[in-house]
Structure formats: C-alpha cells, structure tokens
Amino acid sequence: MKVILLERITKLGQMGDVVDVKSGYARNYLLPQHKALSASKANIESFEARKIQLEATNLETKTEAEALGAKLDGQQFVVIRSASDSGSLYGSVTPRDASEVASAGGFEIDRKQISVVSPIKELGLHNMSVKLHPEVIVTIELNVARSKEEAELQASGKSIQELAAQAEAEAEFEIAELFDEIGAAADEFGDDDYTPAAKEEAVADEDEA
C-alpha cells in the first residue's frame, strides 16, 4: 500500500515521501496515528497545499523537543523494586514505570515515547530511549534498586553483585578471625586443660581485650 508520510519515519523516509508499506502496518499504525495518508491523488494534492504549514509545525515541535531533550538526555531516575539477593527482580521494569518516575522528576513523558532493548529484570543501571520527536531521540538511565541507599551505591559505580560479594567476604573474614582466636586460646591452655568452659572464658577474655 502506498502512503504519503506526514513526518519522518525511521527506515521509511522523510515528510512528504511517498512510500510503499504493508497494508496492515499502514491501517493499524501509520494512518490511525496520523503519521501518513493513503497516497491517493486527492491526498497528495492536499498535502502539497499544506506542505509549508506542516513543515513549519514540524520545525516548531522539533525545536521544543530539542529544548526538552537537552535537559532530559542522560538524566538518571531511581526505581525501587523488590528483588532476590542475587539481584533478580520479582517482575520487570517497563516503559510505563519509566514514564512515571520521569514525570515525578518533572519531565512529562508518555510511555509510548519510551523504548527498551530488552526487558529489565535485574537490579542495576539500565538505559532507555525516549523519542521526543521523529528527529529527536535521547537516552535516560534507570537506577533500579531495592532502596534509596542501594541506589546511591549503584550510582557511585558499585553493582549489587559486588556489594553482595563484599558482604560475604567480610562475614568469612569474621568467622576466620573467630577460629583463630579459639585456636590461639587452645595453644595457651593446652589440649588437656582446655575444657569447653575454659574455651568460653578464653574467648570472653579476648573479646574484653
């Protein structure tokens, strides 16, 4: 089906181009979204008569989008979600979620303007594209964490996996120190005299010291 584009469409063409597309794509998306008109003789003539006005409107909306994009591009928004210790989310973060946190941050963005390469199902920092205009696309970053404190750590460059590994290493170190203290006490008392009660007393003495 041939249509005349009313705005720039990625991989299709520029405003005013007459292109051939699949009928379903035209009827289900391009035409109802007012992004194109069927390329009939009457519609082509109508477009030519309105071309200057359409180009002026497009330029105006593009300028507004560029101004917003300059403020929005690179912005980071925090999304708090429940997740397992390994960092896997109980669900996923969607463009709707991104739209809500961006709006809460002072940027009115429709979820339909936001796209993600793959579903976000892990804690961490994730990028999403925001199409403010057919010719203006910017990137925002979602900081998905279980708490604001965790989000701050992630923003500083630490991943949840690194934090978990660090906590595990600290726990193992504390256990190793405890065994070292018990071993040292055993050497001091000797195997025969080192009863369980003496062991407990030695460890208590070590803690007080």
UniProtKB/TrEMBL annotation:
Keyword Amino-acid biosynthesis: no
Species, as recorded: Falsihalocynthiibacter arcticus
Keyword presence, Ribonucleoprotein: yes
Region (Disordered): 188-209
Gene Ontology cellular-component terms listed: ribonucleoprotein complex; ribosome
Name of the protein in its database record: Large ribosomal subunit protein bL9
Entry keyword set: Ribonucleoprotein, Ribosomal protein, RNA-binding, rRNA-binding
General function of this protein: Binds to the 23S rRNA.
Gene Ontology MF terms: rRNA binding; structural constituent of ribosome
Protein family: Belongs to the bacterial ribosomal protein bL9 family.
Domain Ribosomal protein L9 span(s) in chain numbering: 13-40
PANTHER family hit by this protein: 50S RIBOSOMAL PROTEIN L9 (PTHR21368)
Residues of the signal peptide: none
GO BP, sorted A to Z: translation
Gene3D superfamilies on file: Ribosomal protein L9, C-terminal domain, Ribosomal protein L9, N-terminal domain
Source domain of life: Bacteria
UniProt cross-references to Pfam families, sorted A to Z: Ribosomal_L9_C (PF03948), Ribosomal_L9_N (PF01281)
Transmembrane annotation, as ranges: none
Gene transcribed to yield this protein: rplI
